[in-house]
Structure formats: C-alpha cells, structure tokens
Amino acid sequence: MATLATLPVSQREGAGRTARPFALAALLIAALSAFLAGWLPLGFSIVTVFLFAGPHNWLEVRYFLTRLPARWGRLRGYFLTAFTGIFGLTAAFAAIPWLAERLDWEHDTWLLASATWNSVLVLWILALIQMRSRQNPRRDWFWTLPVAFLLMALTWVAPLLWGLALVYLHPLMAFWLLDREIRRSRPEWRTAYQRCLLAVPVLLGFLWWHLADSPSLPGEDALTVRITQHAGASLLPHVSSHLLVATHTFLEMLHYGVWLIAMPLVALRVPPWQLHTIPLARRSRGWYRFVLGLIVMGVLIVLLLWGCFLANYPLTRDVYFTVALLHVLAEVPFLLRTL
C-alpha cells in the first residue's frame, strides 16, 4: 500500500489539497460541537439525538453490509460468535431492568447482574480477539488475555462505573474505525486526520476547565433527569451535571459526525442507496432483494423513530439508548476485522 511519504512531490501536493478541506471541516464541526455542548447541553443533546440517532444507525448498517463477506467460509465461526454476542448481549442488557422491576431486585442483586453482564461482554470480546489473531494476517495478541481478566476484575469492583465508562468510550470507537478506513481508502488524508484528533482532548480540556465549577443543570422533569442520569450524574454526584452532559453530548456529536459525514465520504464513496458495493447484494437476485428490503426497512425505522420522538421524547430516548447497544457491539467485530 502506498503511503504519503512514497508518493511523488506533485502527488503529495495534490493529496495535501484534498486533505485540507477535510481537516478544516472536521475541526470546525468539533469546535462548534464543543461550544454548543458547553453553552446549551440539554438542548443540544435533545436536538442531536432527535436528528442524528436514527440516520447514523442506518448508515452504520449500510457500512457493515459493505464489509460483510458474501460467503463466510473459514470466517463462519468468527461471524457466528460475533452475531450471537451482538444479539444475545443486547437482549440480556434490555432484560436486566425489566427483570429488576418485575422481581423487585435489591441493589446487590442489580450489581450482581450488571457485573455478570460486563464479564460476559469482556469474554465475548476476548473470544473475538483470539479468533481474529489466528486469521490472516495473523496477530500476536496473547497480551490481551491478562488485560481481559484484569478488566473482568474491575467490573466486579465497580460494575455501574464500568457501564458508565462504556457510555463515554463508545463514541471514540468511531474514530478508530475511521482511521482504519482512511488508511485503506484515503491514505493521503491520514496525517491530517490524526492531527485533527489532537483537537479532541484540547476541546475536552477546555470544557472541563470552563465547566468544572458550574452549578448542576436545573430541572426535575423526566427528560432532564434521563439525560443527566445517562451522562452519569447519579453515579458521580460530586461532578457537575452540566459538565457531564456537555462532555457526553460533545463526544456523541463527534460520533454522529464520523458516521454521517466522514464514513460515507471515505468508506462508501457511492450514494448509500447504490447496492453494487455490497457483497451480499451481488451474490444472487434473492440476496439483492433481501439487502434492498433491509435498507428500505431501515429508512422506515428512522421515520418511525422520528415520529416516536415527537410523540414521547423521554420514553423513546430510553428505548433507543437500550436498543442502540446493538450497534455499539456490532462495531467490535468489524473493527477487529480491519486490524
């Protein structure tokens, strides 16, 4: 694979010209997101989730279909393990609060269920890592075994904080996936992109410095409580809820920006409704119809989600962030396949 350093001078100059608008747009979106998240955290959170939650999930599915082989062959075990974990862990995650309410669980029982779920999640990721390490190109990832068992121990020490860490770390996975796609499809953009990533901790540091002593967000309505709790206000009572919501909303907006703008530009390169780049759609006419139906159904779900947000935003937000774990978990096997 050609790198920027190996290109002739004329091609490197051309690469710089194409990378510059991408970098400027990325920095502008990041700076504007940080400003709005710090200034209007609740309003910005409501608007971003309403506008972008459904469309970004639809584009994620479109991307995953592009990266899914038409025939699994020797990868059958890997993808079966991946999809079993994706759907099984999501179903278990959704069932825990339902069982807790129906069976009137005590707090210790809730912690036990959360720690168990977290441990299964770590084991599932570990299994995928070890399976991927034995595929071409082979990787020496034995070091992940002690790391995984250390993480499992931490999940039992603080299971709820572990879950909160996933909320904040998940948006960062999109940066990693985008880096791999840029490396594969637009290597001339990679240096500019990695420099743009340095702006994220700088903007986060500015938010934390500016909001460290800010009062908690006012309001005891159901929506405000849901947003602040999702950002970890109940688990971190000594941290300003304004800071927590601003941080989470800023990272979430960057996550949406990756999937709605950068990924189609870098990875898809064709309008999302053109299906000739999807291996399954090229397998046979029947599979083409299946993929087309899946894409159309995704559009209908996005429209339905918008309607549900308008009808009952707090409830829809709760349901969405429970079901959205599906796409969080789906990113893991596809990211591993790019390494």
Polypeptide structure, described:
- It is built from 14 helices and no strands.
- Helix 4 runs parallel beside helix 6 (159-185) and helix 8 (199-211) runs antiparallel to helix 10.
- 79% of the residues lie in helices and 0% in strands.
- By secondary structure, the protein is mostly helical.
- The model is unreliable at 9-14 (pLDDT under 50).
- It has helices spanning 9-39, 41-67, 76-103, 107-133, 144-157, 159-185, 190-197, 199-211, 222-230, 241-268, 279-283, 285-311, 313-323, 325-338.
- The chain has one domain (4-338).
Terminal residue distance: 15 Å
Number of domains: 1
Q: Class by helix and strand content? A: mainly alpha
Largest sheet: none
User: What do the pLDDT scores average to?
Assistant: 88
- How large, in whole angstroms, is the Cα Rg? 21 Å
The ordered string of helix (H) and strand (E) elements is HHHHHHHHHHHHHH
Q: Uncertain spans, ≥5 residues at pLDDT below 50?
A: 9-14
What is the strand content? Answer: under 5%
> Roughly what percent helix?
over 70%
Overall number of strands: 0
Please report the number of helical segments. 14
Dominant shape: globular
